[in-house]
Amino acid sequence: MYLEAAGHVVVGWIWLEQFLATGDGDDVLRQGKRQACRYFYRYELPCTAVQFDLLARLDTTTLGTDDTWF
């Protein structure tokens, strides 16, 4: 879960750099990059809040699983 949440944050950072790199240009490629960035920030990045909240609880359920049970 940590890797997924942290990965989304890193991808969000990359999208931010892409968004800023588009500058003031108005061609279709730049418009597409801006829209993809907006999508990621509105639909994907908010999912990390739940993941980070779960991690903050420091739940040890998965650590208490014995290998022999599988």
TrEMBL record:
InterPro entries registered for this protein in UniProt: Acyl-CoA_dh-like_C_dom
Domain Acetyl-CoA dehydrogenase-like C-terminal: from-to ranges: 2-64
Domain of life: Bacteria
Pfam families: Acyl-CoA_dh_C (PF12806)
Protein name: Acyl-CoA dehydrogenase C-terminal domain-containing protein
Species for this entry: Streptomyces hyaluromycini
